[in-house]
Structures are given as structure tokens and as C-alpha cells.
UniProtKB/TrEMBL annotation, chains A, B:
SUPFAM superfamilies registered for this protein in UniProt: PLP-dependent transferases
Protein's name in the database: Aminotransferase
PANTHER family attached to this UniProt entry: ASPARTATE AMINOTRANSFERASE
Residue ranges occupied by any Aminotransferase class I/classII large domain in the UniProt entry: 9-338
GO molecular function: pyridoxal phosphate binding; transaminase activity
Pfam family, one: Aminotran_1_2
Amino acid sequence: MFIGVSGKNIISFGSGQPDLSPPNRVFRAMFRYRNFKYGLIQGNLNLRKALAKQYPKSTADNFVITNGASEAIDLTLRALSKVNNKKKNRVLLPRPYYYSYPYLIKFAGMEPVYTNLVEGRIDFDDFKKKVKNCKAVIINSPSNPTGRVESMETLKKIEKITNDLGIYVLSDEVYKDLIYIRENYLIKGPRVITVNSFSKTYNMCGLRIGYLWSLDENLVNRVIETKTHTSMNTNILGQEMAYEATKTPEKFIKKQVKIWRERRDFIYKGLSDMGLDLWKPEGAFYVLPKIKNPRAFVWNMFKKYKVITYLGEWFGANDRVRFSYALDINKIKEGLKRVKKYLKIKGEI
Amino acid sequence: MFIGVSGKNIISFGSGQPDLSPPNRVFRAMFRYRNFKYGLIQGNLNLRKALAKQYPKSTADNFVITNGASEAIDLTLRALSKVNNKKKNRVLLPRPYYYSYPYLIKFAGMEPVYTNLVEGRIDFDDFKKKVKNCKAVIINSPSNPTGRVESMETLKKIEKITNDLGIYVLSDEVYKDLIYIRENYLIKGPRVITVNSFSKTYNMCGLRIGYLWSLDENLVNRVIETKTHTSMNTNILGQEMAYEATKTPEKFIKKQVKIWRERRDFIYKGLSDMGLDLWKPEGAFYVLPKIKNPRAFVWNMFKKYKVITYLGEWFGANDRVRFSYALDINKIKEGLKRVKKYLKIKGEI
């Protein structure tokens, strides 16, 4: 996926990582911390206690600190696959989806079932029909790759139906602090597992500090049992840096959202003005326009125009291309210029 | 397993982690490193290049950096479970074994098959009989929990038979730098995957930097593909610290082995003098004596004598107890005094 490709004159709308800097205070841990012994498998107590203040009815016991949100999802699915509640090992997935979900579901020996998004949002009628035969559902709002945010109404209906039917909800909320239209709505319930991370909010992707939160004590214990064997504690210094990040004032996040919103407005207008069919992003930093020949587009943009984009088919959207706008607005401008040039030559706009 | 239990007057022969300090130079990375973006899934190039110098016929491509040796084993088994070479999904395991192996084998949807050690070493006749029906075998020399090192002759016979039969060898060599009787012998072959770590050699357990090495390109690629979804890159700062550790002069390790050998001699003599039946440790920092009532022993030593030991049954050795001697010699002395007192009262010695 061109990860790690860089070079002069390349414009990357590829990888989904912020180009901004982490809060200064996270570096403090690097100057201070000196204990490199094994830590608790569940995660450092100071970090879990700090997180507990951000979630309702919670103590440090409701959290497991993981190697990024990825490991939190992997461990949760591995744990869920062993829950014996007479439900079939199926997981319902809105499509387009984050590209790792189907892999992780299959790795855990489960089967993905898809509900197609309508205008980038969950079609609750279809969801309702399909969820009955599943053990779990993955919700990802704000969504990578659609950039859409589900309505409060839909999220509350999902809370109710999954609770009524005894279905687990794995809610991937790694973009919860990057929403342009309202505050995040935390999905709640006795079988909800929320996954989050320090990567996107605090620009610490490479440190791989994520976590899961759940009020389901059994599920949390199963995850810890699994992690005891699969990776043990999460990097202890990274956890100390994440702990420092929890002390970051709210204004750090607000300042960032302002930057993301400007970029969002800029790229949305730019692509719309070309006449492309796309959904207005409401969160995260992706936009997923329809493109006539996506494979030719992604390939040629890279080879001939030095612009990196990701194929929609990696995310279950065969007729689209994903642009990450996690880059400087001047670069976005230059990238859009090249996109426009290509599409004009091809007669696609 | 009493992990994380500490307190005044407690003597812990429990957790297997060095009490010594990391090389000073690993701290340098903490003062210098400032890039927290995603890294390569396979691991930092500087670290992999440094490791390639330590392994024959190797380049950076033959390595994957992981969240400790645990993740390297987990990823390898997950990758092996998907290899379709008409062999049954069985993994041969010498018993006693490191307690996570059977879990990880089962997590990957495979089945553990056991060959019982004789005098703490592989019985090659039994091994030979059982290995034919397996897809892979795990070798762990020096061994946790036995402290034994396999003979060169056995290791070479294992190399040959597995190569002849097309069977994978997962060689867990995390204690390769802590051997008292000879240099480590690296098992080689086209289907060998060697797992190692910075935890034990450089006293960096909590940073969770491990790796796997293999000349099997397909297997390495499968592991990278899996890790792309399950955890992405390993903590990028930890990798920089591990890179610094690779520059540590040989004498650092020699000095450590001297300390470990003194402790080994001391605890081996102490337990032998009590009349306990045990194997002389040849590597790592564990000893696994027979104990008449292991469950009562472990429980009472902890509750009444504040001495932590681990039940042999966690490692597939029902009639034994594991002592880690990764602690100061004065503490070992005090711990042994308490053990002797208990065993005398119970009339077991």
C-alpha cells in the first residue's frame, strides 16, 4: 500500500496518520522514566485510572492497554470467538469498512457479514435484519474510510437492538476527538467493547498505544488471559507517554480540530468542484469519492503524477478511492491540481 | 500467577525477569528520538540491518521486529496454521514447556502433541516417532522452565529429520546469551523460524522488543501480512532503544553470565543439599525441582513464608515447582532458608 514511500515532490493522500506534533508533555516521560521491568498485562495502573475518569461508571478494571487499537480489536475478536452463547460466530460489518476488519474477523475464525452503507451511513432496516444472526457487530463512527459520523438516533437504535438480542458491540472510536458536527456519542451497554487509541488524537501513531474499555468483566478477563500469552504488557515507556498525554488540556484537541476542519473544507470543495460524487466528511480525515476507473486512477496518479491514494476496493468500496487529508493544506492544493489534470486528460471530468 | 506482587520481606522466585540493569546506551535513544509516526510493519531498518550481522546468510529482509518474543511466536503459529502443505495442524512440544506454548498453539487453531523430556532433555526416539505427523515443532534451548540445554547432537538430528520431512521448526532462543556450558548452537534450515528478544540479554522486558528470523521468505511475508492487521509496527521508540542495545560490547553479556552462573551454582547447591531431586541448570535462570506436594508447597510458601514460586503444572510438570533465580544472591539465600524450614516441618526432607 505504498506505506513508507516518500520522496521529493510526492504528495501522499495515502497513510492515515496525522502530520501534526504530539503534545510537548509526552516527551517528559522520556527524560524521566527508567523502569524497564515487565508491567501488568492489563496495563499501567496510572494510565488506566486516568482513562477511567473519561468513561462513565468505570474504574481502572474496565480497561486493557494494547499495542494500538489494532491489537485491541484483534484481542476482542479472539475473545469473542470463544464466547459460547449459542450465537453463530458471525460479525456484522458496515461496508465500506476499515480494511483490517474482515481479516481480523477471519483470523479469529469468525465470518464477516456485510450491511451496505447508504450515503455513507448505516441503513438500519438492513442492519436490523442481519444483526439477528450475528454474535457481534463492529461500529466505526467516525468512519475510516468514509469520514462519516452516524446519527445519534441510529447509534441509540443499535444500542437497544443489540442489548435486547444479547449481541456484542465492538465500537471503534479512534476518531472520536476528530468530529466536525457534534460531540462524540459513546455507545453504552453491558456487551459494548469500545476501542480507542492515542495515535490520532495525540499524533503518536508509531508508539502504538491503544486500549479497550468495557463494563463486561468476563470479556475484559478473557482479553487479559489472551494477551498474557500473545504479547504480555504493552510497551511500558509508551504507556507512560500516553499517561502524560491524558493530562493535555482540552484546547490542544480544539486547536487540532480547527486545522482538520480547514483541510476538510478545502479538499471537499476541491473534489466537489471537479464534479466528483462524494460524501461530505463529518469526522476523521478521509474522503472517499467515486472514480470511474479506480485502479487506473490510483496506479497512474502514483506512477505519473507522484500522488499517493488508496484503492477503495481495499475498504470494500470498489468504485471509490480513499484520500487521507492528513497533510499540509499547500500539499493538498498541489495534489488536487494533479488529480484535476489527470481526470481532465482522461475525460473523466 | 502473583505477577506484580511485591512488598517488604517477600522473596520472589516467581517471574522470569532479570533484576540487572539495561546497558546505559539504550537510554541515549530516549534523549534523542523524536519521530512518532508509523514505522514499517516489518520493523525499523537500522535494527534489522544490525541483527542481520548476527545471523548467517541474512539481510534485513529475514527479520520481523515484534512486541516481544511472545508476539513473534503468536504470529508465527498463526502464519503456520495457514500453510497448506498437506500436513496436519499439529505442533510437537517437548514437555515441560514454557506455559504459553499450548495456549498459543490452540489459539492458532492447531493441536499440541507432546514428547516428554528425559532428564530434562529431548528423547530423540520418541521425538522422531511423533514428529512425522506434525506440521511444526517448537524447540526451546536453553529451556524455560527446565534450565536445560539440548546437546549439539540432538539439535543436529532435529535439523536433519525436520528438513527431510518438510517440517517447520520454531526455535525459541530467548535465553541464547545465558548458557553456562557452551556457546549457543543456532538451529538452521529452510523451514526454521528463530525467535529472540532483547528482554533477557539486555534486561529490557517491559519494552517488549522481540523478533523472528527466518530464511523462509514466504513465512516472513505471511507474518508481516498478519501483523499489518493485528498490531502494525512495534513501538518505534522501543525499537530505537533495541538498536542501541545491539551496539553493546560483548563484555556486558559476559559480565552478566558470570553473575547468573554464581546464582545458578548457589541455588543448585542449596536445593541439592536439601536432598531435592533436580536437574542442574545449564542455561537461562530457572530450576525445576521435584516437590512432594507442589500445590501445598507453592501455596504455603507464599501465604506463610512470603516466598513466591511457580507451580510446575503450569509448565506441564505436575510433580515439580519452578524457581527463577533472577534475584540477588542474598535474597536467594534467605529464600532457601525458608524453603528448608517449611520442608523440614512437613517432614519432606
